[in-house]
Amino acid sequence: MNESVIIGIAAVILLGTLAQWIAWRLKMPSILILLLTGFAAGPLAGYLDPDKLLGDVLFPFVSMSTALILYEGGLSLKKSELSHVGKPVRNLLTIGVFITWVLASLLAYWLLGWGWRLSALFGAILTVTGPTVIIPLLRFIRPTPQLSSILKWEGIVVDPIGALLAVLVFEALLASDKGDPIQVALVGILKTIVIGGGLGYIAARILVLFFRRYWIPDFLHNPSSLMMVFTVYAISNHVQPESGLLAVTVMGAALANQKSVPIRHIIEFKEILRVVLISSLFILLAARVTMEDLKLIDLSAVLFLAGLIFIVRPATVFLSTLGTSLNWKDRLFLSWMAPRGIVAAAVTSIFAIQLEQSVPEASEMVPVMFAVIVGTVALYGISAGFAGRLLGVAGDQDPQGVIIVGGHYWARVLGKLLQDNKIRVQMIDTNPYHVTACRMLDLPAIQGNILDEGVQEGLDLSTTGRMMALTSNDEVNSLAALRFTELFGRGEVYQISPYSDQGVTKDKNQVPRELRGRCLFDHSLTYSAFSRRFAEGADIKKLTVGKDIKSTEIRKTPGLTPLFLIDPNSKKLNIYTAEIQAQADDGDLLIALQD
Fold this sequence. Notes:
The chain is an alpha/beta fold. Helices cover 60% and strands 8% of the residues.
């Protein structure tokens, strides 16, 4: 293989991962940083040319990557969510798609000066939003569970619907000179549903059968799943153009909602792939735009973008949600979340190539779509979090809330102290007595097993960013840490020390380090040690650093074990761990266990 190609591919992965890390450090939407990075590497620096790098493989790579992303999105679709958001989701995917198509087509016809055929096609493409942009923004913005479910379902399912609509409009326009376009569209819809939906469901059932009967070993589960995704996508697209996206989405949803075999290991693997693919795709998308393309973006394109944001999306949401339980704040937030992504760019590029000979204006679709993608991602990415918090429907970008697993006495004391100092707390315990005791202290508490998906779905994660497992069972604590690592990351998942009471000497029978959360407070402060010190008269104290105790004396004071550090101004919570000590400043509130 040509060395320059290897370097180019490595550069795409490097830039994508680096952009994701920078976005995480700056607490900004990753999609925005990815677009800026790709644009800098492409048209600005002239270093990255996706067409030259991948050649004819570029669009197949984009298509198959999008299929995998939609499959991973389908794996997150739970039927149980539809009991609360079924009506708005259904309306957005039917009435909403139609309204978006009509209004976007009219805007293209009036503002961009295109013919009605090209305008109708462009309007159909613009009905998609897509999980490539929606899911990263949802993780960044952290809206309420109801709004998150609506946007997730819309973003994932509207991709195959929008792509299908664009293909049908394209075929209907070509058939308008030869036959009945309505008949072409109806036949296309029927074939796509039967072929795409049928193949996707059959593929899911085959995988479930093979997994349930142990005909495929565990180490081949993920490769088999990948193989089935690409096979179904290719066959479905071959039989009926653009039905592959529906096939992989149905396949993912069917797997997610069956109860015969566990698929968590598949979901985790696909999530890793999704991050890599999204990073690479957006780098390539931005790098592919040329300076000549940007010159085609004039005032009419800007007005068109403004029309999509301020007219089309609000009209779509408010008309689609009439008669639902959503209040005006929910509707307003939904109106401010319609970024476009990879599918819109890929479909636009494909149709532009096919129409350039017969429709001269078709070449203008690509730069206008790039403006729409960058404009919507930038605007929604920067402002949607602020808008959500202003409306009271989104959580903090750096949430300080804590989930405490365990509702026994000293866990309740810790939870009450944190809550009294404006740190949101959610308690979870299987013991009904402990749950009742928590509620008597006005501590939000859920009775149930922390490993139960139903319990996790009942948690409000919009203001919660970390988990502490404080039960007497080290295995339960470790399993809870493993489960919540997926939500909060390894750095924000803690558990009480699983070490023995003999200092830092580790028992060989203890849970392995790689299967645990971060060790809370001190190696020697196990559940039994904490309980024993309480029984011997120790208490949890609140001390002001600089007034009650000097920062240099925190770890040196006999009988005092620091637990938490709270900034009284920002209400930022720092948790002491056995490995890393929080940095205390004068004025900070120290919560410590003192004999």
